[in-house]
Write a structure and sequence with these properties.
The complex is a heterodimer of chains A (about 120) and B (about 110). Chain A is an all-beta fold. In chain A, about 0% of the residues lie in helices and about 50% in strands. Chain B has strands at about 5, 10-15, 20, 25, 30-40, 45-50, 55-60, 60-65, 75, 85-95, 105, 110-114. The chains are: A mainly beta (about 120), B mainly beta (about 110). The interface between A and B is medium-sized, with 28 and 28 residues.
Chain lengths: ~120, ~110
């Protein structure tokens, strides 16, 4: 069964450094998402991406964040200058369609720790 | 805005016990409702969903019914197994936002003892 993969599984970085989290969505999916979960808190939506552009973003997704689909298979989340509060588990997801009832398929997550 | 509230956890049960995890929501219109499960060390997997009022989603012995009148989507299973130990998330997507973003509840940790 096809699945969403994410690399790395864990990332430790110093405050102020740039990080890039990578995801390979399911191959015939057209909609891509990033969510994050700070330890002990809810899973929160960050951004959705379709047709090579952002279709929706939350208030969390400020100018420090960017997303890209550089080569038709990878989907990346870049944090330009990490802060301590960016420490979280980051989940990538993909779906075939973009409607409300569409199932989103999640990757295993990247645990980011900012020191 | 949209929100989802789950019963506080963690929940600990013995094998073969009956499970209910409560989930209520706030949303405009008719959102779609989901239960996701996260097993240790893995990502979130869809367990079941319902896209309109009175629909029942079911999978692996779990069931949940979309109740518009009580804005609820409680998860039930008649007889839990040790392998059901995981974190369960209730979620919705709906018309308030332009896309299909999921809004999640807090998650409920379930532990089933033999």
């Amino acid at each position: 069964e096809p699945e969403v993969t994410q690399t790395p599984s864990h990332q430790v970085t110093q405050m102020g450094q740039e990080v890039i989290l990578r995801c390979v969505p399911i191959s015939n999916h057209l909609y891509f998402y990033w969510y994050r979960q700070i330890l002990g808190q809810k899973v929160e939506f960050l951004v959705s991406f379709y047709n090579n552009e952002i279709s929706e973003k939350s208030e969390i997704f400020d100018d420090q964040f960017s997303v890209e689909r550089p080569d038709g298979s990878n989907f990346t989340l870049k944090i330009r200058s990490t802060k301590l509060e960016d420490s979280a588990m980051y989940f990538c997801a993909s779906s075939r369609g973009g409607g409300w009832g569409e199932t989103q398929y999640f990757g295993p997550g990247t645990r980011l720790l900012v020191l | 805005g949209n929100s989802v509230t789950q019963m506080e956890g963690p929940v600990t049960l013995s094998e073969e016990a009956f499970l209910t995890i409560n989930c209520t929501y706030t949303a405009t219109g008719y959102p779609s409702l989901f239960w996701y499960v996260q097993y240790p060390g893995e990502g979130l997997q869809l367990l079941l969903k319902a896209t309109k009022a009175d629909d029942k989603g079911s999978n692996k012995g779990f069931e949940a019914t979309y109740r518009k009148e009580t804005t609820s989507f409680h998860l039930e299973k008649g007889s839990v197994q040790v392998s059901d130990s995981a974190v369960y998330f209730c979620a919705l997507s709906g018309e308030e936002t332009s896309g299909s973003r999921l809004t999640f509840g807090e998650g409920t940790q379930l532990t089933v003892n033999p």
